[in-house]
Amino acid sequence: MARIGVFICHCGTNIAGVVDVEDVVRYASELDDVIFATDYKYMCSDPGGRVIKDAIKEYDLDKVVVAACSPRMHEPTFQAVITDEGVNPYCLEMANIREHCSWVHKDEKKEATLKAKDLVSMAVAKAGLLEPLESYSKDVVHDALVIGGGIAGIQASLDLAESGCKVYLVEREPSIGGRMAQLDKTYPTLDCSSCILTPKMMDVSRNPNIELYTYSEVVEVEGSVGDYKVKVKRKPTYVDWDKCNGCGECALVCRMKGKIPDEFNEGLGKRSAIYVPFQQAVPLKYTIDPSKCLMLLSGKCGDSPPCKDVCTLDAIDYEQEEEIIELNVGAIIAATGYDLLDANEMYEYGYNHSPDIITNLEFERLICSSGPTGGEIKRLSDDGEVKSVSFILCVGSRDKDLKEYCCRIGCMGALKHAYLLKEHLGDDLEINICYTDIRSFGKGYEEFYRRIRDTGTNFMRGRPSEIRTMKDGKLNFDIFDTATQKLFQVTSDIVVLVPALIPREGSDDIGRMLRISRGADDFFLESHPKLKPVDTSTDGIFIAGCCQGPKDIPDVVAQASGAASRANTILSKDTLESVSTVAVVNEDLCSGCGICAPVCDYGAIEIVEVEGEESKKIAEVDVALCKGCGACASACPSGAMEQKGFKCEQLSAMIRAVSKQVE
Predict the structure, then answer these.
(1) In this structure, are residues 563 and 543 in contact, taking their beta carbons and an 8 Å threshold?
(2) Residues in contact with 110: Cβ distance below 8 Å, sequence separation at least 6, in sequence order
(3) CA pseudo-torsion sign 576, 580, 581, 585
(4) What is the pLDDT of residue 526?
(5) Same domain (yes/no): 397, 487
């Protein structure tokens, strides 16, 4: 017979303010097999843990029920407590009387107390049938994979490499650097973005512990925490990077020179079919675009390809083929970054109807000295003089019909641009900032905002009307300023739209491969918003930067270092203990129908032939891959598949307990 102890937590007033805890304790003490029941204000605290430990020793308890908050938050805490006193950690059962009870019955104390009793009786019924479980150990591969070569991926890679780990950094573009490489200055200090980023890019290229795979994509991920097997597709660059010295002579003579929109410059400039994204690229090696190169498209480029003729190092190689590289790593960090919402989603703002209506990222390239105009600010429609610039914030963000969340970088980015415009064009320049709310939340941000207000910049609180193109090419719109209760008509030479941030194109494929959940905003979902902001629901997979949600550079760098630190908690160990609540197969009942295998998201189930019986097949569970989700057990038509800790008899006991209460 089980000897069960029941411990009810007040959780301050989270539970006790709604549930009659003393009544629940009295009820629990009368349940079958319950030897001891008590309550405490904060059961998860050190004194609360001592209450449990003392009771285990005094009453010789072998099963423990804790009625408190979500087991997702504190189950490991209480498992550690009972383990200290020699009780198997899987002889713990938790009743969630906070999220499932007090938080949903705030004004119904009687009903909340009755429900708490039901939850406790179910937990006690199951606890009596719990079995001690042993964990499984597995060896850890000490290498790491980082997906994405922006500032988040760079920082995470450097931190991991400095701790002694071998790091594979995979970036799908020909160079690392990401979005930060496109920026001119960074707020609020107005440091040169390249001056900050380029040294870190060089550190990556020089670090012996980092193996860099640019122009590459992750195409397959298998395995589990501590032992992931990854396939990386290395796309052909048609240039032998071992020979190329980045001289650029090939790009100068390319027959497609100046004809292809330059992606790095957001289409405002032109490039050749053979190119480097930008002059500080790492690696500084040339790549041939197979969708634009005449030789690769038609097999002919004039009498002879000029790029091949001019290359004295014989680096041009049209015969290069795609390569699949297989990696074995213990942990993975996804740092896939962000894109901008297509500004055409807000049709009233006329994006693409006028060359002078641009996004904030396009404006970054326009104002940057390394950009397509060399930093000269002019109207793109006619190279005319710029006397007025208007910024429209929250284009598609904070909008229930498009993206409800704040982009977090738009306000400060517009303030930075306002400052740089005054610096470039003088104080006579008219600048209008149309905003919903100015959000200057970071260190030094509010001071920067006040500094811009003192420059004579016009701030208008409201959303502009349709943007109209006038006969002289200027742009005109109306806006009702809710701060002054006045209607203004604004005429500008350039209108800069500040769109919402969205997950990077292709991140949905990465999410599926890594089995990362996505939130309502489509960004990768963290395991816990407070306690595990860089972990995911898949062990050994971590997230960093804007793939998790919009944020600015300091927060991205901090989160990247956090993700590296969390990954190191795995990579620094020689072995890992895997989850014990895995699926098990009753071979006598299993017919080998195979229904369980496709429902397993972790690839842990395989249908195998029984040795010595050619016609009989059964399911086999790889306990190293199994995460105990229970999907296979619920799908099994014969009841042959069960999950340890959640067996049918245990769940049936819970149902009988609550049914008895209802009767």
Answers:
(1) yes
(2) none
(3) positive
(4) 96
(5) yes
Residue 87: both structure tokens together:
């009780």
Structure-token pair, residue 285: 């090696």
118's CB contacts (< 8 A; 6+ apart) are 657, 658, 661
Report the helix count and the strand count for the chain, using DSSP H and E.
17, 34
3-class DSSP string for 244-265: CCCCCHHHHHCCCCCCEECCCC
298: containing domain: 236-321
Q: Is 220 inside a domain boundary?
A: yes
Considering the domain architecture, whether residues 367 and 489 belong to the same structural domain is answered as: yes
Q: What is the CATH number of the domain that holds 513?
A: 3.50.50.60
pLDDT given at position 615: 75
DSSP for 406-458, please give it.
--SSHHHHHHHHHHHHHHHH-TT-EEEEEES-----STTHHHHHHHHHTTT-E
Residue 425 shares a structural domain with residue 446: yes
372 lies in the same domain as 279: no
Contact (Cβ atoms closer than 8 angstroms) between residue 51 and residue 43: yes
Residue that finishes a domain, picked among 97, 112, 133? 133
Task: Identify the CATH number of the domain in which residue 624 sits.
Answer: 3.30.70.3270
Closest CA to 314 of 243, 233, 217: 243
Q: Is residue 655 in a domain?
A: no
Spatial separation of the C-alpha atoms in residues 356 and 376, rounded to whole Å: 14
The two structure tokens encoding residue 62: 């072998």
Angle, CA 132 vertex, CA 127 and CA 133 arms, to 5°: 120
Q: How far is residue 160's CA from residue 170's CA, in Å, rounded to a whole number?
A: 14
Burial status of residue 416 (CB atoms within 10 A of its CB: 0-12, 13-18, 19 or more): buried
Tell me, yes or no, whether 74 and 179 share the same domain.
Answer: no
Q: Is the Cβ–Cβ distance between 551 and 559 less than 8 Å?
A: yes
Asked if omega into 277 is within 30° of 0 (cis), the reply is: no
Q: Rounded CA gap, 159 and 562, in Å?
A: 9
Rounded distance, CA 125 to CA 93, Å?
10
Dihedral of alpha carbons 231, 236, 242, 247, sign: negative
pTM of the model: 0.89
DSSP-assigned letter for residue 104:
G
DSSP-derived letter for residue 488 is E
DSSP one-letter string for 498-561: EEPEEEPTTHHHHHHHHT--B-TTSSBPPSBTTTBSSB-SSTTEEE-GGGSS---HHHHHHHHH
* Domain co-membership, 72 together with 83: yes
Contact 110, 83 (CB under 8 A): no
Number of folded domains that form the chain? 5
- Whether residue 41 is found in the same domain as residue 106: yes
In this structure, is residue 139 part of a structural domain?
Answer: no
Q: What span, in angstroms and rounded, lies between the C-alpha atoms of 226 and 143?
A: 9
Collect the ranges in the chain with pLDDT lower than 70.
Answer: 614, 661-663
Q: Are strands 486-492 and 475-481 parallel, antiparallel or unpaired?
A: antiparallel
22-61 burial by CB neighbour count: b if 16+ within 10 A, else e? ebbbebbeebeebbbbebbeebbeeebbebbeebbeeeeb
Residue finishing a domain among 77, 108, 133: 133
88 and 225 both lie in a single domain: no
pLDDT of residue 355: 96
CATH number of the domain to which 19 belongs: 3.40.50
Is 330 part of any domain?
yes
In three-state form (DSSP H/G/I as H, E/B as E, the rest C), the secondary structure along 586-629 is CCCCCCCCCCHHHHCCCCCEEEEEECCEEEEEEEEECCCCCCCC
Q: What is the pLDDT of residue 662?
A: 57
